[in-house]
């Protein structure tokens, strides 16, 4: 088994009782903690028209995080290309790479990261944007590449910066693209585990070596809550259940404290969905989560990197969870 690297994703959620600035401060504080824990990378998502998330101006948040951390790589999980002109993306990330060399990542998604009305308000044709995703990824590769391979329009200061690109996916579509282009692939198992096995298989089987990679590089993103006991982890996971339930109800409420009465807050169907999500997540004691990761590798094959996302209301418990996850990965790697 290869050494599994460990990283984290943050949607910059607002906790109950907080405001936007508090959420951004929490984002930076968590990044600093994970920097000290020597996590590989820290990615920030892109969402629009979501009152409980402060991750709409992703590039600004990435720069803010880079300014307040030392070593950890910081990037996008992801920049949703239908919303942005590739030239502008290249200019922004080329500028960050100039300021923070070898610490900037660019994860790319083909969905708008919002509803269709909001996508239209972002002033790009969301329908064409989805279909043009492969060509736009290629444009970005060119913008970040050598000067002698570029056309008249260039994304200064991105030229020759070689900002690493990652293809994000929640279905099998992007697996084909990542394999064909020889780029790293990141699967969103935290909200769409249904096609994960097939997507990983497609990516690995169809992978074509490139200037970037000579073999597949697979990152899996999962909900992670690691606590002292299974019971405590399940209690903390009641916050995760409330987050997803508020999304399905269309309420988008702030992150709620954990509860011992989850069954009373949800309908029977919502409660069953929450339990199913728990089964598809890394939730439990260190021993339980270790076993879950080993089972995942047995079922899906080797992964190169695990990206954890955790909706935990208490900030100290969230950091403790990431510390325990690090312990687990160290035990697996050893």
From TrEMBL:
Coiled coil: none annotated. Gene3D superfamilies: Luciferase-like domain (3.20.20.30). It comes from the Bacteria. It holds the Pfam family Bac_luciferase. Residues 19-296 form the Luciferase-like domain. InterPro entries: Bact_Lucif_Oxidored, CmoO-like, Luciferase-like_dom, Luciferase-like_sf. Signal peptide: none annotated. PANTHER family: LUCIFERASE-LIKE MONOOXYGENASE. To bacterial alkanal monooxygenase alpha and beta chains. This is LLM class flavin-dependent oxidoreductase. It comes from Staphylococcus devriesei.
